[in-house]
Structures are given as structure tokens and as C-alpha cells.
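Hi,

Apologies if this is the wrong queue. I'm a grad student, and the batch job for Phosphotransferase from Methyloligella solikamskensis produced an output file that my downstream script rejects. I'm not sure whether the problem is my script or the file. Here is the sequence I used:
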Amino acid sequence: MTSSRGEIEARIAALDYWDGAVEMEPLGGGITNHNFLVSCNGRRYVARIGDDIPEHLVLRSNELAASRAAADAGLSPAVLHAEPGILVLDYIDAPPLSPEQVREPEMVARILPLIRKCHREVPNHLRGPVVMFWVFHVMRDYTSRLLEEGSRHAARLTELKRQAAVLEEAVGPIEVVFGHNDLLAANFLDAGDRLWLIDWDYAGFNSPLFDLGGVASNNEFTEAAERDMLESYFETPLTDALWRRYAAMKCASLLRETEWSMISEIHSEVEFDYAAYTAENLARYERAFADFKTL
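Support response: The file is valid. Your script probably expects a header line. Output copied below for reference.
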């Protein structure tokens, strides 16, 4: 059921967590959740509103566990309150990055340690059940749902499914780390002296190649920047074999974002031009897959 802004604000204001009157305003940029900046007794908070999203395999219990672990690892703001459908976080007074900023070599050098810390240290703080985010399973589920629900993209799905199988075979056996799995520029906050990583809706165990491919594809790295990134992350010269596996996972990241948007065209209640987002990501995926076939 669609909730109006007034209904969402009333839900936030009714939380037992507050110790006084609250003021709030929407935070822009999100295309999965409703996010609000809340002020209470001179302190600011972020309230994230969102229930489970079965069509995207998003479980809020998993997001909460990952958010708490990421905060304990020093990557993400503290979780101050949680109840079904609502997460209250400490507010970080820092702007999100833009894709242009993420592409800067100096910023890549700051981001990679954050990604490595996510992969290596967040699991030390996780409690309870967590998920495996395997992009090829996600896309198989998306394809089935899109066909069942009569997506306008149905005619494309058989070929996209075949291509996904080619990519999965090319990725091969993986190293398992804990991935953020949604490394859009806006999920990095730059406080000047440090970076923060936010929004753990899709977090789960995964290959490091998915986050690396995601940050590169979401922010349109050049090939030279991608090669430098891989050598820096793995601290070893780049081989042709690793480059091909990475290229396959980058394609998978783009295809998953495309199919995510196809699903969102049908289901999302957030005001956003998902049709245009689908077209943009599909075009980027097709270019990347054409490049992959030449390797």
C-alpha cells in the first residue's frame, strides 16, 4: 500500500525513541527507501522507512544486522533505534559523492581501503543469520518474476538470461567476502577527514569482484582506472585471467542494475523515472558485454 508523505512523517513522529518534539524534512537521492532528516532537541538523525521488498530479495532484518556490524567496524553511522519498517541512524553532516568525484584517482585511493574494510572486517561484527548476495541467483529470480508479471521487457529476457549464464561461467570459483553490493556514488559520504559508507539494503556475502565491478560501472571508470583499481585492491600485478573474471562480474553488476530497474518499473512506490533508468543501464550493459566478448 502506498503511504503519503504525511502518513510517513506521522509514523516517524510517533516513535517512542524521541524525547521531545520533532521536525523533519525528506532527504533526496534514495530510489529504494524513504529517508528523512529528523531534528529533536538540537540533535539530528536519519530515519529510513522501508519494509521488506520481496521482489528485490531485501530483508530489513539483514539490513539491520549489516548496518550494526558496519557501524561497529567504523564504516557507517550508529544505529540508534530499530523497529519493523523503521531505522533511526546517527546523522552524518557530510555530502554524498558524485560519480565525477568517485572517478578521481585521489578519491579511488580513499575508497579502496573502505571497500577492503567492508570485505574483511564487517564479518567480525555480524550477529545472527545473514545472506549470500549472489548476483546470478538474483537475476534468475528477477527473470522469473518479470516473465510471470508480464514485464514490457519480456521479449529481451531469454537472451539476457543466456548471457548471464555465460558471465557466471566466466566468473568461475570465487573468494567469499562481505559485500556492500550497492556502491553508487551517493552511498559514500565525504566528511573531509574520512569517508562513510551507508545504505546496507543489499549487503551480503559475495565475491569482491562484484563491489569492484559495481563501483567502476556505477561511476564509469576508464579501463586504465579499472586496471589500477584491481592492482591496488589485490596488491599484485593484474593477470589476463583476473581481468576477464572481473569484466564478467562488471557486466553482471550492470545487468543486475538493469533488471532491478525493470522490476522497479512494476513495483516501486518511489517517484523516479525507472523506465529511463532501465534504458540507461541496459545500454551500458550492452556496451560492456560487447567488450567482454572480445577478451
